Automatic annotation (TrEMBL):
Its main location: other. Keywords: Signal, Sugar transport, Transport. This is Multiple sugar transport system substrate-binding protein. It is found in: Cell envelope.
Length: 486
C-alpha cells in the first residue's frame, strides 16, 4: 500500500537516529510467529506517528490494522449516540486493542468487555514500579480493584506562579496542597489599581476572562461536586456545598483581583495572541493550568520581540480541603486495553507493554505533545522547569461527571441561559446569591424533568417504530480500516 514505503523509510530513519539504543539493545520477549492485531484509535495517521511506527520497528513480525473512529466524530451525533455507535463499532470490527477514555474505560471494564492484565504483568515480570503509582491506583479503582489497561500519558494541572511578582510585593509564595480558599486569599494581596492592559492580577485563567460561573465550576471540580445526581435526576445546586463554592468565587470576583477583561483576544498575529495572555506577559501572579502552559511559554519567548522573562514556580494543587494530599484534576484520554475474548492476546499485550515501557518513554521524553509520561524518570524537566510537581499528589476519581451521559443533551441549552440571567442579577446587586441559586435550582429542575420526559418519549417511539432503522445504523457505522503489511 501507499504507506508501506513510507513506513520502511521512517523505520530506517528512527533506527539510525532517535532509537539507536532501542534498536541495538537486547530484545524483550516477543511473539515469535507472524501475527496481526487490530487497534481501535481515533486517527490512523496520528496513531502511527505516535505509537505504530516505533512499535513496528521493535516488532516487525506483528502487523497492525487500524480501526479508525474518526467517522463517529464526524457524524455529529450527541454524546449518548456517540457512545452507542462506539460500542457498535467494537462489536462489528472486534479489535484486539481498544483506545479508551476515562469514561468508557470504566464502562467497558464493568461490563466484562476487557481482558484483565494483572496476570500478564505477573507472567512476564513486566516492570510497573516506575509507572506513576497514583495513576495505576486510579486505573485499578475504575476496574473495581483489577487492572484492565495502561495509559502511557496523562494530563494534570498545577498552580503556576510568577515568583518575581511575589518577591516584589512581599507575598509568601504558593505551597503544595493549597486550597481554593488559600488561592483566593493570596490573590487579594496583590494590587488592583491600573489599566486593564497594564495592571497586575492576583489570579486568572490564562486564556480568557474568569466569570463567576466558570470560577465556581473550577472550584467545584476540585471538590468533586456534582451539579446533577444522575441516579435521581435532581439538581444539587441549592445545597450548602454549592453555596460555599459560589460564595468563594463571588468574593474572589468582587475583590477585583481576578482577571476578567471586558473583551478577550479577537484575532491578530501570534505575537499579539501571546501578549493578550497576562501570565505569559508577567502581569498575573497565579494561574492553574496543565503542562501545556510550559510549552506555550517557551513559544512566547521565541515569538515576542524584546520579551521580558521572569522566574516561575509551580506548586501541587489546588486540593479539596477534605483530601489535602490528593487531586481530582488529573485525567487520561488514552487508556489501552485488550478486548475480552481477543484471539491475539499475546500480540496485543506486546503492543501495550511497549508503549508503556522504558524504550518508548526515552523517545517521547523529548516532547510534551501528548501530555505527561506515566513512566516516571524520563521527562524530568521542560525548558528548565522540573516536572516533579505533577507527580506529587495522588489522583482520585473525579465523580463530578459520573453518569452524566444519562442527562439529555437538550437540557444544557435551557440551563445556561437561566444561570447567566440569575448570576447577572447577582453581579448587578439586584439579587442575593442564595436567592439566585434557589431560582436556578427550581427553574432548571423543571427544564430537566421535561427533557427527561421528552427523551423517554422519543426512545419509546424509536423502540416501537424504528427498530429496523437501528440495525441499519449499526451496519452503516463508519469504520476506516487500514492494513499495514511488512
Amino acid at each position: 500500500m501507499r504507506r508501506k514505503g513510507l513506513h520502511k523509510l521512517a523505520l530506517l530513519t528512527l533506527c539510525s537516529g532517535l532509537l539507536l539504543a532501542g534498536c541495538t539493545g537486547g530484545p524483550a520477549k516477543k511473539v515469535e510467529q507472524q501475527s496481526s492485531i487490530k487497534v481501535m484509535y481515533h486517527d490512523e495517521s496520528y496513531f502511527f506517528q505516535q505509537y505504530g511506527d516505533l512499535f513496528t520497528m521493535k516488532h516487525p513480525n506483528i502487523n497492525i490494522e487500524v480501526v479508525s473512529t474518526q467517522g463517529l466524530y464526524r457524524s455529529g451525533n450527541g454524546e449518548t449516540d456517540y457512545e452507542k455507535a462506539f460500542k457498535e463499532l467494537v462489536e462489528k470490527e472486534q479489535p484486539d486493542v481498544l483506545m479508551l477514555n476515562t469514561g468508557n474505560f470504566e464502562t467497558f471494564a464493568s461490563e466484562g468487555k476487557l481482558q484483565e492484565i494483572d496476570t500478564l504483568i505477573g507472567r512476564d515480570k513486566y516492570d510497573t514500579e516506575t509507572i506513576y503509582p497514583g495513576l495505576l491506583d486510579l486505573l485499578k479503582e475504575k476496574g473495581e480493584g483489577k487492572l484492565y489497561g495502561l495509559s502511557p500519558s496523562f494530563y494534570g494541572t498545577v498552580i503556576y506562579y510568577n515568583a518575581d511578582l511575589f518577591e516584589k510585593y512581599g507575598v509568601e509564595i504558593p505551597h503544595d496542597g493549597m486550597t481554593w480558599q488559600e488561592i483566593m486569599d493570596t490573590a487579594r494581596r496583590f494590587p488592583t489599581e491600573g489599566d486593564e492592559k497594564t495592571r497586575v492580577y492576583g489570579y486568572g485563567n490564562q486564556y480568557g476572562g474568569m466569570t463567576l460561573d466558570n470560577l465556581a465550576s473550577q472550584i467545584s471540580r476540585t471538590q468533586g461536586l456534582q451539579l446533577i445526581n444522575a441516579d435521581t435526576m435532581k439538581l444539587t445546586l441549592n445545597t450548602d456545598s454549592w453555596k460555599q463554592v459560589y460564595k468563594l468565587a463571588l468574593d474572589g470576583i468582587e475583590s477585583n483581583a481576578i482577571y476578567n477583561p471586558k473583551s478577550g483576544f479577537t484575532g491578530g498575529t501570534m505575537e499579539e495572541y501571546y501578549q493578550s495572555q497576562p501570565f505569559l506577559m508577567g502581569r498575573m501572579a497565579m494561574t492553574v493550568e496543565s503542562s501545556y502552559l510550559l510549552q506555550n511559554m517557551k513559544e512566547a519567548k521565541n515569538s515576542i520581540k524584546d520579551y521580558k522573562p521572569f522566574k516561575i514556580g509551580m506548586a501541587a494543587g489546588p486540593v479539596d480541603p477534605a483530601l489535602p494530599d490528593k487531586t481530582r484534576d488529573l485525567y487520561f484520554n488514552e487508556v489501552f486495553s485488550i478486548r475480552a475474548n481477543s484471539p491475539n492476546v499475546d500480540a496485543a499485550w506486546e503492543f501495550i507493554k511497549f508503549i508503556n515501557g522504558e524504550e518508548y518513554a526515552k523517545v517521547k521524553s523529548r516532547t510534551m505533545n501528548n501530555g505527561l509520561l506515566s513512566r516516571m524518570g524520563f521527562s524530568k524537566e521542560f525548558d528548565g522547569q522540573s516536572l516533579d510537581v505533577f507527580y506529587k499528589l495522588k489522583p482520585v476519581a473525579d465523580d463530578s461527571n459520573r453518569n452524566m451521559d444519562k442527562i439529555p443533551s437538550d437540557f444544557y441549552a435551557q440551563y445556561q441561559p437561566i444561570v447567566d440571567r440569575e448570576l447577572g442579577l447577582v453581579k448587578d446587586k439586584s439579587k442575593s446569591l442564595d436567592e439566585a441559586l434557589k431560582t436556578i435550582q427550581d427553574e432548571a429542575q423543571v427544564a430537566l424533568d421535561k427533557a427527561v420526559k421528552d427523551q423517554a418519549e422519543k426512545k419509546q417511539k424509536g423502540d416501537s417504530g424504528e427498530e429496523s432503522a437501528g440495525s441499519s445504523n449499526q451496519d452503516g457505522a463508519s469504520a476506516e480500516v487500514i492494513t499495514i503489511t511488512k
